[in-house]
Specification:
363 residues; alpha/beta; Dihydrodipicolinate Reductase, domain 2; 2 domains; 7-stranded mixed sheet; 6-stranded parallel sheet; 15 strands; 34% helix; 23% strand
Length: 363
């Protein structure tokens, strides 16, 4: 296969990330886009010089010369699009979170298996250069046996309004970003089994916008006697914070995806763009150099191309995405009940796990 021909579903933020990442790899040829409406799809196609633009993704799936579909749309659409894409014989990359429920995850996985297509989970932190280097150091034994990890992502809210709608997003700050922290920990620790999950969350700032949580903390106990903390917030002002810690019995590693890769800058008048989620650029800011590279998106998509071209097994699969969902849903149940959730875990409301927290008596 000389070229992997790609169709992007989603003409917004995630679609741009995918297009930017694939445009850096000579093996990739972005053929088409499907957007929420024809105007947005046409604008996206013009920006990235694509041959086709659709308002209905199913028309794009009819194109015989597409090998890979990437899905970067609201979370409630992931499952059906992934299933339709696999049934059309396309390999699939799904943005995080994988989908809305464990039942949806199982159906997606089963369809991919039945059709012989690859269903890959887009967790960019496993490809962020700093984190990849940290993982190498851990695997070399640089800090001895790891006993604790911590990953946090905090800012003042999502980039699209649909995130505020729980029927579309499936959850608040934890569901949006906690999936990063959960899979970062699983990957860094070689994907151990979960022993238990404890969490606390609340809606403190954006009560007029959402029923979902805007600040959350989860604690994951693993069966290999390690602990991971994930912290997420839509209530933190001043731009994005995105960093991690890995503690071992013989050392510690600190990684900051934003500050350590940025250029400390002061501007009286302000300028166009500094970094994701920065509300303004006057005063002190931290503009990133090659922001998407720091977050791991090009490396992520390069790996998925390797999986198709060379037949490699994906580092991040739909099964990994499902495992993350279990952790997320257990966090919501812990926050709702005030107790530790032991694994194996069965959601008390499998059809809508996050509703357990949203419908809690204290609300």
């Amino acid at each position: 296969m000389d070229k992997v021909r790609i169709g992007i579903i989603g003409s917004g933020f995630s679609g741009d990330l995918h297009a930017d990442a694939f445009s850096r790899d000579l093996r990739a040829e972005i053929v088409a886009v499907a957007g929420s409406n024809q105007h947005r799809a046409d604008e996206f196609a013009a920006k990235w010089n694509l041959a086709y633009a659709f308002s209905d993704y199913r028309r794009m799936l009819e194109l015989p010369d597409i090998d890979l579909i990437t899905i970067g749309v609201p979370n409630d659409l992931h499952c059906q699009i992934a299933i339709d894409s696999a049934l059309a014989g396309k390999h699939v990359v799904v943005e995080k979170p994988l989908c809305m429920t464990l039942d949806e995850a199982d159906r997606m996985i089963a369809t991919a298996s039945e059709t012989g297509t690859k269903l890959m989970y887009a967790e960019d932190l496993c490809f962020a250069p700093k984190y990849v280097r940290a993982k190498q150091l851990v695997d070399e034994g640089a800090i001895g046996r790891v006993f604790r990890t911590r990953q946090l992502e905090k800012h003042f809210g999502p980039h699209s309004d649909w995130f505020w709608d729980m029927s579309r997003s499936g959850g608040g700050a934890l569901f949006d970003m906690g999936c990063h922290g959960a899979e970062f920990a699983r990957w860094m620790l070689d994907k151990p089994k979960v022993k238990s999950v404890t969490a606390h969350m609340g809606t403190y700032v954006h009560t007029d916008k959402t029923q979902g949580e805007d600040d959350a903390t989860g604690i994951i106990e693993w069966e290999n006697n390690t602990v991971s903390v994930i912290e997420n917030s839509w209530a933190k002002r001043g731009g994005i914070e995105d960093c991690a810690e890995i503690h071992g019995v013989e050392g510690v590693i600190y990684c900051d995806l934003v500050r350590g890769s940025s250029m400390l800058t002061y501007s009286e008048r302000g300028f166009g763009y500094a970094v994701e989620k920065a509300p303004e650029t006057k005063g002190w800011t931290f503009p990133l150099f090659d922001e998407w590279m720091q977050y791991g998106y090009p490396g992520e998509m390069k790996h998925f191309l390797d999986c198709i071209v060379d037949g490699k097994e994906p580092l991040e699969t739909a099964e990994d995405g499902r495992a993350v969902l279990e952790i997320m849903f257990a966090c919501y149940e812990s926050a709702a009940t005030g107790r530790r959730i032991d694994f194996p875990y069965t959601p008390s409301d499998p059809s809508s796990p996050v509703a357990v927290w949203m419908n809690r008596e204290s609300r």
